[in-house]
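Supplementary Text 2. Reproducibility record for the structural model of the 141-residue chain.

All settings were left at their defaults, and a single model was retained for analysis rather than an ensemble. We include the record here because the model underlies the residue-level annotations in Supplementary Table 4.
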Amino acid sequence: MVKVAALATALALAYAVESIVNYFVRLAFANKQKEVDMSAVKIVSKKIRNSARGEDCTFHIVGVCNYNPETTVLCHLPSMDKGIGTKSDDICAAYGCSSCHDAIDRRVINEEFEDHREWYMRRAMVRTWRRLIDMGMVVVK
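Retained model, structure tokens:
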């Protein structure tokens, strides 16, 4: 029963993040004559980026993760507002060790990760959001 409740909470959090992203998409299409510049509403937080230091990796990619918190950084995940040379918003990110970060950015190709890419990224993002909530850096009302 506890696992079901935890899964339901994790899914609710993932849907909340998705709702935020969808809000900005709807905002962009609300005024068809003028496109909204997504960089104008980019969410950047030095505190969230710095919070990754010393944290455990949230990806734990099988056969990739080095499980070394000394190498953990905030890994930005692919999203609609990410382009060449730009990062996603800081809310579209997760704590990752250097090895998992290499897999996310495809500097190293791993079949296990590529076969389950979306699952690993969504799980890591939800785990990171839970940590941010536990730290009091993100407040859900």
